[in-house]
Structures are given as structure tokens and as C-alpha cells.
């Protein structure tokens, strides 16, 4: 009887010990599982970590030149920019083109930033006087890539014959391309005036001459009222100076020639 009692007590002790071991094993397993889940929740996702993720640098916006920009000019500008060089642009002409230059330069700078520099040389002279007095003073060592020339035609009216104006134009072109061999040389006429008469013939001769010599010509006269219309006085005053509308019309033609 005593043996049976001992056996019963021993069996009960074994069962209790086994139950206790199983409970500890399950508890430890739950602790480990909980620890793994917590670690996964706390670890930052590589794709959402804004502090460590590297943002790609934005590519520089390419300059959008006008589709109709003269091919040789577009090629030169693209080459300079692709080579990481700054473009040097020079505008030469009468005093009338000064405010036009300022508006045109502002538009170029807005699109091209520090990659372009615009200079202007203006004078109240005929083309013949400019060749003698103004041209020698230009610092060609700057290395101008693009030259826009307004050939003093209005000042020449009644003072310099058409053939002389044309030769003066070629002298400016030669000086520019002597400094920079592949420099682009562009011609633009001055403003129209009311009841122009012979002046109209001078402008027509200028356009024909540039075309015959393969010189790019920025035409803007079609954007103005006819020279026999009093409406032109809204663009050009009787003293032949430009109004704000005149400045806008001429500079828009230059801007639209170069930029989209």
C-alpha cells in the first residue's frame, strides 16, 4: 500500500514538472516572436527614409532656341553652350536701338542666365562716321560670338549713299570675324518713319544686299503700320524716336528670332 502511494506521488511530480517546462517554452517563444515583430515595425523603410535618401539632382533646362533661328547662328550657339563656354553677343547701331537692346538682353538673360553676356555700342553717327570714330574703339578682344548690326540707315538718309552704307556694313562684319573666325553676323534694319519716301528704297536695298551676300537679316518692318499711315506715330514719334510700342515691336522681333 505504501509502494502504491509513493508511485502515485512520483507520477504526479513528473506530470507537474513536464507541465511547467512546456509553459516556460511557450512563454519564451512568445517573447522572441514579439521582439521580432517590434524590431520590424521600428526599422525605417529605405524607400521612405527622407533623411537618408539621396534626391536626384535636377538636370539643367536646355535653352530652347526658335525653330526659325538662322541655322549657322543656332549651330554656333549650341556649340558654345555644349562646350561649356559663355556666349558673347554685341549689338551695334544707332541710338534708337539702345532701349530695344535692353529689352532683348533681358529676355536672353532670363532664358540663358550667366551663359550669355550682351554688350551694346550705339552712336548718333552715320555709318561712314562710325567706321572712322566708333569701330576702332570696340574691344574685339572680348571675343564676340554673335554681332547684331543696325547699319545706321536712318542717319545715312540724305547723307550717305546706299553703296557706301553697304561697304561700311562689310567692314564691320570683317572686323567681327577677324576677331572670332566663326562669329555670326546678323543685320537688322532701323525703325520705319512716317512718309519715308527715299528711306523706303534704302531699306529695300539693304534687305536685297544682305540676301545676296548670305547675311542673316532680322526683318521687323511687317510688324509696324505702313509708313504712309498716321498710325505709325503710335510707334515712332515725329522726331523719329521710338515710343514704348515701337521698342516692343522691334525687340519682339529679335526675341522671337532667337527664342521660343
TrEMBL record:
Membrane-spanning intervals of the chain: 7-27
Keyword annotations from UniProtKB, A to Z: Membrane, Transmembrane, Transmembrane helix
| UniProt key word Transmembrane | yes
Q: What is the name of this protein?
A: SGNH/GDSL hydrolase family protein
Recorded source organism is Sporosarcina gallistercoris
